[in-house]
Each structure stands twice: as structure tokens, then as C-alpha cells.
Design the sequence.
């Protein structure tokens, strides 16, 4: 793996039909923002070879909305990404590291946000970048990292949707 993209799911409804958090679906804005996040990543030249997607409804729908922007990408729905902590997400990514040059993870906070901050610290990010990343990692936000031959991360991009979603 040379590049890792961490993408938080799109904006989701507050309640599901079942009452279970796992079943919460995207709102219309969430679908739109997820699609636009995928388009922005593609416009910047970020194309995943492998997508690891939480099995929850809102992450599956996020993948569905953005998948046209990476048609050659293999997708795996992973139960273990639901409510995963930063270390668990990174462990799964490392297990799959040899299966694609660019891996996309579609998951949830707080685990994704914690992993973004961890990788920024490990990569020696500037105080300004750390402050921006600490302040928020909203729905449809993405963070991109490059990895060197020793597995050290380097910041490659942070896409934060405008407050209120993409326009």
C-alpha cells in the first residue's frame, strides 16, 4: 500500500426503522455529499484499488454513492469497521496492505478521526494542520496519507466539506 484514504460516511438520519444505530441510512444530503466527496477525490487523482467499508447501512450507502468514481475498485464490507477504534482500523488496513496501491476505508467516528490525528502526529504534521484536523472531521470528510517503504505516513490531503455540506 502506498496511499490510504480515510473517508467518514455521509450525513445519516438520527433514527433507523429498526431503532438500531447499525441500520441508520443516509439522508438525501448525505447521499449528495458522499457522491461529491468521491468526485473531489477522483478530481485530485485519488483512485482506490481496494475499499474496506463498514457493514453498517450508512457506510454501505456512502460507498454506493461514491463508487462510480472508482469503477475498478474491489470492495469488501467489513463488520469489524463498525465502531472500530483507530488501532483496529489500522490493523485491518495493514492486513490488506499488499492488496492494492491505494486503500480506501469508509467508516465512522470517533475511530476514523482518531486515526487521522494519529497518522498526522506520526507523520510530523505542522501545528496548523493538526489544529485544523483536531477541530472537526465531519461526515463526508476525507484524509489522505502516503506511506513510505518503512510504513511511515505522510500527509497527502485533507478534504473537509464546507459547514452545511458541499454546494
Sequence:
Amino acid at each position: 500500500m502506498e496511499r490510504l484514504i480515510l473517508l467518514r460516511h455521509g450525513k445519516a438520519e438520527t433514527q433507523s426503522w429498526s431503532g438500531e444505530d447499525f441500520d441508520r441510512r443516509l439522508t438525501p444530503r448525505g447521499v449528495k455529499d458522499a457522491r461529491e466527496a468521491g468526485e473531489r477525490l477522483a478530481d485530485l487523482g485519488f483512485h482506490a484499488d481496494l475499499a474496506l467499508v463498514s457493514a453498517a447501512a450508512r457506510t454501505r450507502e456512502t460507498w454506493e454513492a461514491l463508487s462510480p468514481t472508482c469503477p475498478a475498485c474491489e470492495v469488501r464490507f467489513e463488520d469489524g469497521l463498525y465502531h472500530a477504534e483507530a488501532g483496529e482500523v489500522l490493523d485491518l488496513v495493514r492486513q490488506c496492505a499488499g492488496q492494492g496501491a491505494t486503500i480506501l476505508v469508509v467508516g465512522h467516528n470517533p475511530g476514523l478521526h482518531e486515526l487521522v490525528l494519529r497518522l498526522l502526529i506520526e507523520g510530523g504534521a505542522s501545528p496548523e494542520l493538526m489544529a485544523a484536523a483536531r477541530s472537526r472531521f465531519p461526515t463526508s470528510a476525507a484524509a489522505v496519507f502516503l506511506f513510505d517503504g518503512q510504513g511511515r505516513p505522510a500527509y497527502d490531503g485533507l478534504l473537509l466539506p464546507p459547514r452545511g455540506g458541499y454546494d
